[in-house]
């Protein structure tokens, strides 16, 4: 009986050793389980929407923005037209001043040739006419500068309008 008991104890001892080695193997395989579960966990980065929902959202956005865009476009076109009219007015005024300036320059020699008796009076008025001529030339330059500035502003606003339309 002692021999069979000894064989049972030895068999039980070897079973315990196998069980211990299995536990160690299992433990080494499972020790990294928390990290593996974190790595294998799926994270939803993007939410997928059905296409009809997406189209509805796009249409709602378009319906909301369209009136504002139309209003801004009308304001911009009105302002561009106003600047264009102002530019044309300034150009006409400039041309008128140039015409007056050149007509005064061209008419002076004829008057001198026709009226020899008034040459003393004309000589006395020469400094006044020269001063007026300088004043008119300066005015012409100011108007020319104003027209160029308005043209640049108009072009700048048109570019801004195009950029804003490109983003939308």
From TrEMBL:
Respond yes or no to whether keyword Nucleus is given for this record.
yes
Q: Which UniProt keywords apply?
A: Centromere, Chromosome, Cytoplasm, Cytoskeleton, Kinetochore, Nucleus
GO cellular component term of the entry, any: DASH complex
Q: Which segments carry the region annotation Disordered?
A: 103-130
Stored InterPro entries: DASH_Spc19 (IPR013251)
Predominantly, its location class is: nucleus
What superkingdom heads the lineage? Eukaryota
Record carries keyword ATP-binding: no
Which Pfam families does this UniProt record tie to the protein? DASH_Spc19
Compartment(s) where it occurs, according to its Swiss-Prot or TrEMBL record? Chromosome, Centromere, Kinetochore; Cytoplasm, Cytoskeleton, Spindle; Nucleus
Among the record's GO biological process terms, what is one?
Answer: attachment of spindle microtubules to kinetochore
Q: Which residues cross the membrane?
A: none
Q: Which family, according to the similarity comment?
A: Belongs to the DASH complex SPC19 family.
PANTHER family xrefs = DASH COMPLEX SUBUNIT SPC19
Q: What is this protein called?
A: DASH complex subunit SPC19
Q: Name its species.
A: Aspergillus tanneri
Q: Tell me the lineage of the source organism.
A: Eukaryota, Fungi, Dikarya, Ascomycota, Pezizomycotina
